[in-house]
Amino acid sequence: MKNEAQIGDKVEVHTGKKIYEGILLEAPADEKGIILVKLNSGYNLGLIKKDILEIKSIESRGDGFRKQEPKLSKIKLDSKKPNVAMIITGGTIASRLDAKTGGVSPLDSPEELFKFYPAMFKHVNVSRVEIPFMKFSEDMDYLDWKKLAKITGDLLNDSNIQGVIITHGTDSLHYTSAALSFFLRNLNKPVVLTYSQRSIDRASSDANLNLECSALAAISDIAEVMLVGHAESSDSFCYAMNGAKVRKLHSSKRDAFKPVNTKPFAKISDGRIDILSEHNLRNKNKVLVDSKFENKVALIKFYPGQDPDILDYYVEKGYKGIVLEVLGLGQIATKNSRKSWLQKLKDVQEAGIFVCAASQTINGALNPKVYSSGRELEKIGIVYLKDMLSETAFVKLGWVLGHEKWDVKEKMLENISREYNGRLN
After folding, report:
1. Catalytic-residue membership of 171
2. Is 194 a catalytic residue?
3. Which pTM was predicted?
4. 312-341 confidence digits (pLDDT tens)
5. Could you tell me if 300 and 324 are in contact, meaning their C-beta atoms sit under 8 angstroms apart?
6. Which of 136, 241, 288, 296 counts the most CB atoms within 10 A of its CB?
């Protein structure tokens, strides 16, 4: 096998049957007979060395690669442009390819992030940068949401800041956007969460357009917590979507996030914003941060034949609330079943756990009146959350239960952050 390439180079790998193009990665130590390549699609491919005729370097990205990258420079401010703040939390948008692992690793500084994303600076100054933590979103929890809310609230109450942009990993982004939708009260300016599905070293990275659109959203008059990202797979335009009404609906597409049971707030393209739905306007309120949160809440997905005894665990562990993901219009096993949930749900509520229902179908709304099982569940006290997304319901329930004096049912049914679509049938 002929090989003159270095780890990190862009290469062509020639086998007897096919030529593969991608970035040469460092194979694991226990797989010495394997050549590992990150394909242009983003997926890693392992090839058996004995099947390879030649590895040809077509772009040197080894030790000299950093010399070819944009140089780090101090962030310059333009007095003619509005000021925004940025909170960097990690995720793919703040990462680059690690040739040793085949995955991505965090960038080292804000300057390193900004040098790859010049498009956003056409519209704004990034005058404040906060890095409360660097985490992939699967590692985040309610304590991170509370920290983000505190920092965001302080920035929103700074008269020199027109809006806040938060970069975040995609996998739990809609949980964070829901949390901020409830934690930030009397919102006065835009709060924009954004992401990328593909890291900056890939030609197909979605980060530049997402950040440019986020910059425009952050200086708009839309005083909402919103998620901004690709509206379709091409680099044509973005949507600004309600943070309490959005969900990741694809594992890898650039337009992974979609508004559910509602329209986007706006379409953003070619330097302009077209308003599509109702929203709160920029104002002079003082933002209040209300991040009380009861962590003993659970999200449980019902499936056919599921043993209701699973609920005993949550009673024993002292849980305060459960969001039950139910079938169809609001069904779970209640009768003519070896695993009826009725009695167990009565027991759980008597033990002090508040139980509410959200739909597994994502689109559409629950209606317990249609079938007898729904009527029975509603009769024993299960609160049906109409068209609220289950992830939003989980976050909202923890927030509501964090306020001991609140009427939980009343607050869960109150439309606080447009989490319900009142026009949905």
Report:
1. yes
2. no
3. 0.82
4. 999 999 999 999 999 999 999 998 778 899
5. yes
6. 241
